[in-house]
Write a structure and sequence with these properties.
The protein is of the alpha/beta class. The protein is built from 15 helices and 19 strands. Strands 4-3-2-1-5-8-9-10 form an eight-stranded mixed β-sheet. Helix 4 packs across helix 5. The N and C termini lie far apart (59 Å).
Length: 476
Amino acid sequence: MEPVILIKPGASKWDIREKVWDYIEDKNLANFPRPVHNRIPNFKGANQACDKLVDLQEFKSSQTVKVNPDRPQQQARFVTLESGKTLLVPTPRLRTGLFNKITPPQGANKEQLRICCSSQGVKDFSVPVGLDAKVKVDLVVVGSVAVSEKGFRIGKGEGFADMEYGMMASMGAVNESTVVVSIVHDCQVLDIPEELMDSHDLTVDYILTPTRVIKTNCPLPKPRGIIWSKLDTEKLERIPILKKLRALEEQAGKDVTLGAAPVAAQQSGLEMGQPRGPARRRPQQNTRQDPEGESKQEKRVESEQKTRQRPARVRKESRGDGAGGKEGEVGERGRGRRGGNMKEKGAEEGGGEVTSQRKLPLTVTTVYLGGIPAGLRVSELKTALREREAGPLRLTWQGAQHRAFLDYSDPQAAAQALEALQGLSLNGHSLQAELAKSQRGGRRSGQTNRRPRPATAPKTRAAPDAKRDGDKVTEQ
């Protein structure tokens, strides 16, 4: 079958990623979360493609299957548990370890298994697997941005799938015969030049799409471990499990010399492991990337992209004459307009309002999130939203009132977020997610991209979602 996306000679990995993301957006081939830029796309037909996994002989004969945590592979996690196999899922961005073993409740039904496969379920029904665990992974399922029929794979540019496989190889959990499957939309299968593949890149043996099963017979070997020269000290600091593995390999007498940190990463400070908001489509939005050992040809492209990235500004405003409350707009890095740090705790304790500010469309759809437990930090809520792939365009935090308001681009995005947020529990408290009252009677009025600076101290809101006049974040 001829690829629908054609790649020009000399294209870099980033050129290919952007081409695929643009095509999927232009053709409306993805479900929530949107836009798909800087993500593993949650393509339409993902469940049908995942269901083909059970027909592979390699899956039938496997006992332990590792599946990536992205939304389009959720059905693959479900069929793995439904088939009675051991499911391993990597921890998001490798923050707390390599992967977790999902442990469903005794006698779990299908609905319970589906909950276990969600991002929240992975947290609630799993136990960590350490580097010293004696585990053998029979099958690996990864997402991709692009993949070729020869088995060449391009991820979203952060290198986690490559590192995860390299770490599993180092601990003896996988070897050259371990089968790797990627599940993608048909349009994501295209011709990738072999010269773009590096020694650390993970290749795939099977490609599953909504309409096809492709056996690649890939000629390139898979990574045999972590290539330390592809990493630098900054990445090592942000992924503790890498530091532990490096120490073990150093004790074993292996060469663990690190490479130099990329100049772009040093200047921008947007390294791997930092929290980020929902990805945006260029050129209107900024992107965050931290490629794992990309080629020299790509570094120039990535450097140009990163130098244009700027974290959102923060404004700290007094809410009165010594009342102690603060109101602010918090960007991803929490830096103030005057150079100071905005402490989320101060805003929460003061009964203030913290808003994550981004450019908004003229109309947005707002979701009310109630029942927020006392003491919860806005960063913890944002992490939970990202893990459920329900990150909003803007988050208005009212922790003292135990609520928050989430703005989404349109009613469909809000509806998908509501579905993802059902059953959300934080610090032992169940949260209530529903459309804001202003949304239930009709279309929301437009609002400006920036919150105006109040001339006088604004009044404190009383009941949840009360008097959101025109859904303005700040009352004049």
